[in-house]
Amino acid sequence: MILIHCPYCDEQRPGLEFAYAGEAHIARPADPSALSDEEWERFLFIRANPRGRHHERWRHIHGCARFFNAVRDTVSDKFELTYKAGEPRK
Amino acid sequence: MSGYRIDGLGRVDRSRRVNFTFDGQAYAGFAGDSLASALLAHGVTLFGRSFKYHRPRGLLGAGAEEPNALVTVERGGGVFTPNLRATAVEIHEGLVARSQNRWPSLKTDFGSINDRLGRFFPAGFYNKTFMWPRSFWEKLYEPAIRRMAGLGDAPTVADPDHYAATYAHCELLIIGAGPAGIDAALEAAGTKQRVILIDENAEMGGGALADPALAAWLERSLKALAEAPNVTLLKRTTAFGYYHDNFIGAVERLTDHLANPGPQSLRAPREQLWRIRAGEVVLATGAIERPLVFAGNDVPGVMLASAARTFLFRDGVAVGRNVAVMAAHDSGWKDACAMARAGMGVAAIIDCRSEVDPALVQEAESLGIDCLIHWSVVGVNGRHGVKSVQVLHHDDFLDRRLPCDALLMAGGWTPSVHLWSHSLGSLAWSDDWGAYLPDKPNEKVRCVGACAGKWSFGSGMNVGHLETNRNPAAIKAFVDFQNDVTAKDISLAVREGMKSVEHIKRYTTNGMATDQGKTSNLNALQLASAAMGKPVPEIGLTTFRPPYTPQTFGALAGHAQGPLFQPTRKSPIDSWAEAQGAVYEPVAQWRRARYFPKPGEDMHKAVARECLAVRERVGIFDASTLGKIEVIGPDAAEFLNRMYTNPWKALEPGRCRYGLLLGEDGFIRDDGVSARMAPDRFHLTTTTGGAARVLNMMEDYLQTEWPDLDVWLTSTTEQWAVIALQGPKAREVIAPLVQGIDLSPEAFPHMAVREGTICGVPTRLFRVSFTGELGFEINVPAGFGRHVWEQVFAAGQAHGITPYGTETMHVLRAEKGFIIVGQDTDGTVTPHDAGLDWAVGKKKPDFVGKRSLARPDIVADGRKQLVGLLTDNPAEVLEEGAQIVADPNQPVPMKMIGHVTSSYASATLGRSIAMALVADGRARVGQKLHIPMPGRVITATVTDTLFYDREGSRLDG
Can you give the residue range of the structural domain that contains A16? Predict the structure, then answer.
């Protein structure tokens, strides 16, 4: 079972305390109604799905319950780092 | 005890005789014997029948790698465990074991006709033969194959044992207690580290158990480790899987080896699952000797040289009185000489290499062993045991007969890199070893001893095919013993175009048996390499996956089975319902009272009675499972305004609102009635099954999209008991119980909330209705739930109060056309599709999902819309999920235009009602549609979804 470092608890905890929450840094547009159908489609459905370094969100749902960001390698399944929500992309 | 037990050798306890039976025959062994060694001591060579050809088979190995000797062990009371390796079964007094895959008996097996038909069962036989005609598959091929297939029998009786699970943490985990593993443990024993040493066998020592020269060292070392306070020793424990971040799964066998594990009720767990997190892992898993591939290499009595050595020195059993050794590796010479010195008759060593270290030859010759260098074995005479072997000189290609009673193969060594590979460590091909060795680690792990390719057994050669003077098409030279894969099958697979080893594996089933190719993978690779004319590293290697050896489902499930499989959530009123004889249904993890049958009532009658009671008098319903979230903070109204489709900012304290929650894709996710308790405080409710999901979604938006909002969300689902009181008499029932709240319709209108007390308990009293009747939902702290319920129920007696369950709740809401999210919606339904446009704030600039409601495919015609259906025959109740068509006479496959989502017999209306999602449904109101069912077609008229009290006149009672 994978170990994940929660940037809020500042502890390495077992994966079963966490829930995956999709790709990171996809901010909800401030005014969705101003977006074209294509722009809204990109926000809603289009994801990077890279082979390798992936920015993604996790939630320490059975711990502090905070959402945070992580960089994980989708090939090796290794976490490179985790950082708090709202911090710039790393 | 018998002619095959050698006095003065072995670690078994000769003072303790152990009686057991195999295939009904009584035998005796010694404490410390495995089933394999105890039977060998009696001269038994035949242990089982092979999977495909039903060929007679004996032991190949002495440990976890054994592919042939699979047995079933009885556990009493119809319980048995199939497919245990005889080499890994410890005998105990009264053990009952039997062989498998044979009928009527091991010696006379009718299935062995497959062996003579073998040329009709080449590699890929199933893929080629059972393709056509397609219709034959289900009725003929599959049942026939299923009867033939499978190893052992599956028990039909429930497992009476229980299984424990535990966690462990350590700085150093050492897997394998052979000399290398013990050395690593001794080194760490002096530190402050927590060390765990685990080994799959009953006794620690690994290879040292079969080396009398190491006996004193072993005893000393194990004593030192047992005394070290920081070292935990786990024997009979198999590390079966190596997972992320040094997380190792292991199963410890606790009672199977005991003659008397105690009465069932008091018995210790049969096995214990260990989940171990280690700072560093040391793999000392050793190496497994490889068989050689030649005709007759599966005759009982042909086995690995290392196995023979182990049986002799560990168990004191000679596998023969006059054995021959077939070597391609120096270790075969060393084993042969060691066994000869210990008094076992060794007739000859046959080595296929052209040159052998002269020192080895000299030693062998001095022990009177005939040394045949540059010779091979090309045939084995004997069916249930070895009588002699045919040996071939590579120069003159003439073969001669060599009498012997066992043939020992020394084909080189394969490091046990299974766990290393589970951890995603890379492997590198070693020409010296003729094997893959651990290369770059992916975790904090290192390999020691033979599994790292470190030892001093000398060299060997890479052997694919051995020289033979026989027609290769006419011989069966086995590669995978358990799955009956021959050298011919591998070359056939290559000829038929299988290029990758993964394809060859699946086409021939090589390495796919329960031993996962422990003795066959490398030989198959080398044969494929020769057939393709490519070096082995270019062909690759099949993937090792957990488990290392088969494990029981019991150990993996532990106590998470039966009622403990998952938690059953019960409301504070559940015990009352149970005492009333309620019939339950599961709703998410809750169990909810579905209906309260009176004597003689079925569900239909009980629900009809409960429905009429609510419509005519008053019903009481446990709604405690509703999800509840307390939303607090100065920005609470703003937050809800952004989350829900409808406007919330203008909602006054003391008022309720039906909230509709969409995903950002515009589809309905949840709904519920919520109340504003104060300007900065809301009492939200969600569906029973959606509670956790909704809280997660709200937390997501709050934490990551709008962290500037000052709002706190707290789940209060289990803090409140909720008693729904519905029906025209509801107000009269609670009036005498409530203090501090004016219950009059003017002071307390529909969709209002008040705080006061009921039965002396503080309450949030909602005036809401999911039935269309006058209704209250009494929220009280959960601990008072049953108390208040009983008081209300007592007070209701004068008014004919009737408890009702979820089934009645469903009927009553359907009569009013209220949707149930997840039943009438399926994640692709928009508010417009569900006829809930009224709940969408048209003037709101934004809310979650709003932009999607203008997506082209959402505004397009032809979407499925929620409508009502009234069957022509009012007694006909449609099946939920039934498909709907416009024209029942069209050819099959018909065009399906929708499906039934809810359907009930309505006692109130005296007929059936249904709701359905139908393409362009609302434009079809008044049309007849058709529901084809087996053997008939049901016709129904499309209506809107409001079936009862269209004026809403009943809300005030």
Answer: 3-26+38-84
